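Q: What structure does this chain adopt?
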Amino acid sequence: MAGSKRSKLKKALSPPFGKTPEPEQTMDDDALMDDLMNQLDSRNKTVQSESAAVLTEIKINKVADTPPPAASPPSQKQDSKSRHRARMERKAAAIVEQQAPSNPEQDEQLQREAAEEERAIRRICDEHGLEMFEINPDGHCLFSAIADQLALLHIIPAKNATYANARAAAAAYMLAHPNDFMPFLPSEGGEDGVGSTSDTGVMSSAAFERYCATMRDTGAWGGEPEIMALCSAYNITINVVQGGARSIVPHKPLKSPGDGGKVAWISYHRRMYGLGEHYNSLRPRPTFSETVKSVFAIGSPQR
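A:
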């Protein structure tokens, strides 16, 4: 089962057929491991278990394909990255070991929920003239989806519409407005984590700075705080389309009631790809005339 999940991940993270991959899109097992390791600390149990299963399979395959190393001198030490990897690999193996056997009835229920969720989101898309633009499920999906919207709204150049820039903008806004975010963020290691909260029960300044650095520099999953930070940083409304009773959740800037008349649309999926939470970008659907022009442009001979 892990093999199919790994293949699904690597397929989703690969460039479309016929397109030359850019450096950022190339993903070997090492890069995939780095991204998956970032998900082992996710509070979403499904994300944890899926990532752990793929990590464990990669580790097993590497051990099987690698000849035994020569003996190292006793004084030789691992670098910090190697030690970190070893710890995370042990954690992944422990998570996999704790997982209960697959439940066919539960799997079928999850598939039904995923299909129902997709129908609900596509219904909203039809009502608002939108179409889904799928974002890679690589841990950066929220930031990539909003970056795509910022480019569509001509707020940033297309070449700057990357998850890295969106992460940096969210972290910078949060650091500049700590009082708007610290009371609502989860503490490190839970509410009783050492040094995670101040005497008032609010996340400490040091922990908040670490949280922002993690959001800026790693593949940690973003959520509600980061959406609020980005709509405030760019002074726009971000509409999140999802399944359930509340199908459209608008997010407006914290400091300004106005949104400049610009609205970004993204979709939130709880079941997509079987990897837990995921975000996609919702782009305006091309008009009939635009479609016709596109068809003729493709068919026109080169001059």
